[in-house]
Design brief:
CATH superfamily of the largest domain: Dihydropteroate synthase-like
Number of strands: 13
CATH topology of the largest domain: TIM Barrel
Helix content: 40-55%
Distance between the termini: 24 Å
Largest sheet: 8 strands, parallel
Structural class: alpha/beta
Number of helices: 14
Shape: globular
Number of domains: 2
Strand order of the largest sheet: 11-10-9-8-7-6-13-12
Order of helices and strands: HHEHEEHHEEEHEHEHEHEHEHEHHEH
Length: about 400
C-alpha cells in the first residue's frame, strides 16, 4: 500500500515512522517542491538558472527560445526543494551578472524574511496572528452597497459594536464613505463629522478592542488615531492623498495597503490585466518599497488584494483561488469578500442580503489557507466557521 501524504501532516507522519526528532527539519527541506517564479531574467541568466537547477536535481522552466538567446528576457519558474534553493543561493553569490544578482536577492528575501506574528497599535494594543482574525464592518455611510451594514446614528453604531465584540470580533472597521463601484466621494467635512465621534464613542465603551478606520484622507486618519483608532485601512494604497503616508510614518500605526485599479467611480469600467497576479504583486512590491523608503515600519504593513476594486468576476475568483501566492511578501494578508457582487454572480443572487452562505464559504477557504485577517459584515456566523476550520486544522500537530 502507498499513500500520498498531505504536506500539512508530514511532521506527524515522520514521528510515526520513528525518526530522530533532530531529523524533522532535514526531511522537511527535502520533501516539498516549491515552485517560485522570477520575472524578466536576461536570457543568459535564465539559461544559467536552468543548468544550475538541473545539476542540483531540480529544474527550471524558461521560454522556448532562451536556449539560442532569440529572446532578450524570460520569466523563470524554479522547481526545487528548500535544500536545492539553499545550494543555489550559495552558487549565485559567485555569479552577480545577467540579472542573477537580482534573482539571488529576491530568493534570499523570500526565504529569510519572517512574517510578523503580530501588529501593535500606537496605543499599545496588540493583534496576534496565531489564528485567522475577524474584522467587523460598521458602515456609517448611508449608501454602502449592503443596506444591512448601514448604521446612521450613535445608538445603532454602539449597539452594533457591542454585538460584534460579544460575537468575537478582533477588529472593528469603521467607514463613513462608500467605496462601492460608481460611487462619488463625500466631502471631507462630512466624513470627519460622521467617523470621528463614532471612533471616540466606541473607544470609550470598548477600551481593549482594536479599531481600524477605513479612509484614504490624511486628516481623517490622524483625527481617528487621536480619538483612539489603531489601524489605517486605505483603499488607495496612499494614492489619493499623498499626506496619508506622513501620518503612517509619524504614528507608526499598522497600515492596510490595498490594491485598486482606478477609483471607486470608474474602477469597474472594463478593468483589464495582461497578467492579473503579476500586476497585483508588482503593485505591492512597488508600494511596499516606497513606503519603506519613506519610513513606514514594514512590519506594520498588511496587504489586501482588493476584491471588487477594479476586478472582473473572473479576476476575483482567480485571486480567491491563488491566495497562498499573496503570502510571498511575508506580510499579514487581509481578505474582504463579504457579500460582494462576485459572490452574487457565482450563486445567481442579486441582493447582498442573500449572500451570507457564499461569504461563509469564502471565510472557510481563507481560514483553511491561514489568511490573517478576514473582513466581514456578520461576525457571529463567520467566527463559528473559523472555529470549525481551526478545530480541523489542529489535528495536524
Amino acid at each position: 500500500m502507498i499513500i500520498n501524504i498531505s504536506p500539512a501532516y508530514l511532521n506527524s507522519e515522520l514521528k510515526k515512522v520513528g525518526i530522530h526528532p533532530a531529523s524533522n527539519k532535514i526531511f522537511g527541506r527535502k520533501a516539498e517542491i516549491i515552485p517560485l517564479k522570477a520575472f524578466d531574467v536576461p536570457a543568459p541568466g535564465a539559461n544559467i538558472l536552468k543548468q544550475e537547477m538541473l545539476s542540483l536535481g531540480g529544474d527550471a522552466v524558461v521560454h522556448k527560445n532562451v536556449i539560442n538567446c532569440n529572446v532578450e528576457v524570460s520569466d523563470v519558474i524554479l522547481l526545487g526543494t528548500r535544500k536545492h534553493y539553499n545550494i543555489l543561493l550559495d552558487k549565485l553569490k559567485l555569479m552577480p551578472y545577467f540579472g542573477l544578482g537580482r534573482v539571488r536577492s529576491a530568493l534570499k528575501s523570500y526565504f529569510e524574511t519572517p512574517k510578523p506574528n503580530s501588529i501593535t497599535s500606537p496605543w499599545g494594543r496588540k493583534l496576534t496572528f496565531d489564528r485567522p482574525r475577524l474584522m467587523g464592518i460598521i458602515n456609517i455611510s448611508p449608501d454602502s452597497f449592503y443596506a444591512g451594514s448601514r448604521k446612521q446614528n450613535m445608538a445603532e453604531i454602539l449597539e452594533t459594536a457591542a454585538k460584534m465584540v460579544q460575537d468575537g470580533v478582533d477588529v472593528l472597521d469603521l467607514g463613513a464613505m462608500s467605496t462601492r463601484p460608481g460611487s462619488d466621494p463625500v466631502d471631507e467635512a462630512t466624513e470627519y463629522a460622521k467617523i470621528i465621534p463614532a471612533v471616540a464613542a466606541i473607544r470609550k465603551n470598548h477600551s481593549e478592542t482594536l479599531i481600524s478606520v477605513d479612509t484614504y484622507r490624511a486628516r481623517i486618519a490622524q483625527a481617528a488615531l487621536d480619538a483612539g483608532a489603531d489601524i489605517i485601512n486605505d483603499i488607495s494604497g496612499f494614492g489619493f492623498d499623498e499626506k496619508l503616508i506622513e501620518v503612517v510614518v509619524k504614528s507608526k500605526a499598522p497600515y492596510i495597503l490595498m490594491h485598486i485599479k482606478g477609483t471607486p467611480k470608474d474602477m469597474q469600467t472594463n478593468p483589464t490585466y495582461a497578467d492579473l497576479i503579476k500586476e497585483i504583486m508588482q503593485y505591492f512590491a512597488n508600494k511596499i518599497a516606497r513606503a519603506r523608503d519613506l519610513g513606514v515600519p514594514e512590519h506594520n504593513i498588511i496587504i489586501d488584494p482588493g476584491l471588487g476594486f477594479g476586478k472582473t468576476y473572473e479576476d476575483n475568483m482567480e485571486i480567491m483561488d491563488r491566495m497562498s501566492e499573496l503570502k510571498s511578501f511575508r506580510r499579514p494578508l487581509l481578505i474582504g469578500a463579504s457579500r460582494k457582487s462576485f459572490v452574487g454572480t457565482a450563486l445567481a443572487l442579486e441582493s447582498p442580503a442573500d449572500r451570507l452562505e457564499g461569504t461563509l464559504a469564502i471565510t472557510a477557504l481563507c481560514a483553511y489557507h491561514d489568511v490573517d485577517l478576514i473582513r466581514v459584515h456578520d461576525v457571529r456566523e463567520n467566527a463559528r466557521v473559523i472555529k470549525m476550520v481551526e478545530a480541523i486544522k489542529c489535528r495536524r500537530r
